[in-house]
Amino acid sequence: MSDTKAHLPLVDAAGDDAGSESHDVGDTVGHDSGDSSRVIGVLALQGAFIEHEKMLGKLGIRTVEIQQRGDLEQHFTGLVLPGGESTVQGKLLRDLNMLEPLRQLVAGGLPTFGTCAGLLLLAKHVEDGDTHLALMDITAKRNAYGRQLGSFFTHAEMTGIGTIPMTFIRAPYIESVGKNVQILSEVNGHIVAAQQGNMLVTSFHPELNDDLSVHRYFVNMTESGHSLDQAADIL
């Protein structure tokens, strides 16, 4: 845990102009050697999806962008829900008829990693906000650390990883968790990382730092064998 804070400059992490595509490990310089059978889907409707793709590429993981319902027919062994604007992402998921198929995939055991807005998409309860996938037994508070000028950077412990850098931008935090949720990290007395089975969430943005630890932790979660192929019958 840590209470060290430093103000950050404004960060625009959105990659809204990116087209739907698949990224091979060779797209990123300096990646680890990886298993080509592991492919992670990244929700690419809005927010920092490109940054997640780059981090996974450094670990030798191929990614596919999920931008429409038909993209769910691709093979992937895990799913990333990036930071951005949860209200916008939730609306787009509904407008594109993607919300229920995604909900069923995650409920069916697909390893899923939600950062910031992705945490809010997964939360069963959101104070002063709408719920979307509503699968993870947590209560989240939106913009809990204030608006963007109140964003900060710190280092803190995360269970199973150690001390890591954490970048918070208009971040939510988790106010309470259900009995099946494991708290992985707290900063200033607030829960900022947690896991419930196949679902991992962080309030902070690990994709905006050079440390690969959190993404490596998630990649290890995907080794349990859950994949779109195994969950295809629920679409």
UniProtKB/TrEMBL annotation:
The gene is pdxT. Pathway: Cofactor biosynthesis; pyridoxal 5'-phosphate biosynthesis. L-glutamine binds at G84, E85, S86, R142, I169, R170. SUPFAM superfamilies: Class I glutamine amidotransferase-like. GO terms for biological process: L-glutamine catabolic process; pyridoxal phosphate biosynthetic process; pyridoxine metabolic process. One of its GO terms (cellular component) is cytosol. Belongs to the glutaminase PdxT/SNO family. The keyword Nucleotide-binding does not apply. It comes from the Bacteria. It comes from Bifidobacterium aquikefiri. The keyword Transmembrane does not apply. GO terms for molecular function: glutaminase activity; pyridoxal 5'-phosphate synthase (glutamine hydrolysing) activity; transferase activity. Catalyzes the hydrolysis of glutamine to glutamate and ammonia as part of the biosynthesis of pyridoxal 5'-phosphate. The resulting ammonia molecule is channeled to the active site of PdxS. In the presence of PdxS, forms a dodecamer of heterodimers. Only shows activity in the heterodimer. Pfam families: SNO (PF01174). Keywords: Glutamine amidotransferase, Hydrolase, Lyase, Pyridoxal phosphate, Transferase. Residues 1-33 are annotated as: Disordered. The lineage of its organism: Bacteria, Bacillati, Actinomycetota, Actinomycetes, Bifidobacteriales. It catalyses: L-glutamine + H2O = L-glutamate + NH4(+); aldehydo-D-ribose 5-phosphate + D-glyceraldehyde 3-phosphate + L-glutamine = pyridoxal 5'-phosphate + L-glutamate + phosphate + 3 H2O + H(+). Its EC number is 4.3.3.6, 3.5.1.2. PROSITE patterns: GATASE_TYPE_1, PDXT_SNO_1, PDXT_SNO_2. CDD domains: GATase1_PB. InterPro entries: Class_I_gatase-like (IPR029062), PdxT/SNO (IPR002161), PdxT/SNO_CS (IPR021196). Residues 20-33 have a biased composition (Basic and acidic residues). This is Pyridoxal 5'-phosphate synthase subunit PdxT. The active site is at C116 (nucleophile), H205 (charge relay system), E207 (charge relay system).
